[in-house]
Amino acid sequence: MEWVRVVVLAACTLVGQTAVAGQLPDDAHPVSRNRLPPIERQDLDQSRHEAFDAVMRAEGPSASAALRLHGSGTDLRFSGPVGRPLTEVAILITAREIDQLYEWAMHELDGLAVGVDEVLIDIIRHREPLDGVGGSEAVIMEVGRELLSTHALSADTYARALARLGQTNLVDLIVLIGNYVSTGATLTAFNQQMPMGWRQSLPLPFALPDDIHPDSRNRLPLRPGPYRTSVNALYGRMASPGGIGPGQIRAYGKGRGTLEDRVGRRTMMLAILATARAHDSQYDWTMHEPLAREAGVEPALIDAMRLGERPAGLAEADDALLAFAEELFDDNNVSAETYRRMETALGVPDLVDLVALMGAHAADAAVLAAFDQRLPEGVEPRLPTP
Prior knowledge:
Number of domains: 3
CATH topology of the largest domain: AhpD-like
Largest sheet: 2 strands, antiparallel
Distance between the termini: 30 Å
Radius of gyration: 21 Å
Order of helices and strands: HHHHHHHHHEEHHHHHHHH
CATH class of the largest domain: Mainly Alpha
Strand content: under 5%
Number of helices: 17
CATH architecture of the largest domain: Up-down Bundle
Number of strands: 2
Strand order of the largest sheet: 1-2
């Protein structure tokens, strides 16, 4: 499709294409149409040329993939140039803003182990003001809170973060935040509870759910071992309990590569639109709406979703999916009834992979919002956003 080519070029590297500067914010580049300059293949080390080429070959909107190319290309959690203490701060602020208890518990231990101040962790835990917090930690916390609560990042906040962290580190941290939004979606969808004997350390209401398995501590049975675990150096205890967590949940899927063959393109597009709507993601919605129409999502349903509505009389599978997305991303808690409806409609493997798809688009929404990715020139916005 010609518009796909336009999107990829606008986001990556365009020779000869221009944009009207007056249509863009002051901090947007007229070629990339976001806050980062265009990137050329030769700007990247050889190990990342394949990733660049994949973006250029993509058959669909790929601005978020292009934005990620501005990062370090390293293992962001363990070996990113920004350093472990700051990556753990970014993960903790993400877990807190999406009320993800399991994610928080795992990374509270890791944060302490790599030297994050306990007072700082408590400020994140209780959503206290940042008075007295300085340096890069304060910038990361401000970015995470604003981005995840408003689905946007103001020009002033972005400028402060860029000045403090530098472009590569800022991209890495935003991508990391998106990654843990995606992980959090999997944990929340399948109601992953704390390992047996571990305390809940976020100040949230708690009632032990009755739809989890006692061994896996989530909605899916425990998979056979052996399990890969890690030990926290500070406490000498398991930091990754065997058999539970996001990796074990995702192992129930068959892979996103075959998801379309199993659930159909229409269901996938409906899930993408529902995710984009929940995150006010103008770019993701607008670029996928035509694809959703081609896939058979009814115009009347698209129009209702655009306004944040769930019309009466929907087919059970559609109604369940929209309820699921709303609870997952707006409430940070999928009810037992809504989960049951989705498992009945899709089965466990397809639901696991569909949640992974939705999590990936939630991650994209964070990256697109942070760098204020605008639509290609001449493409009209289709989503009413704040």
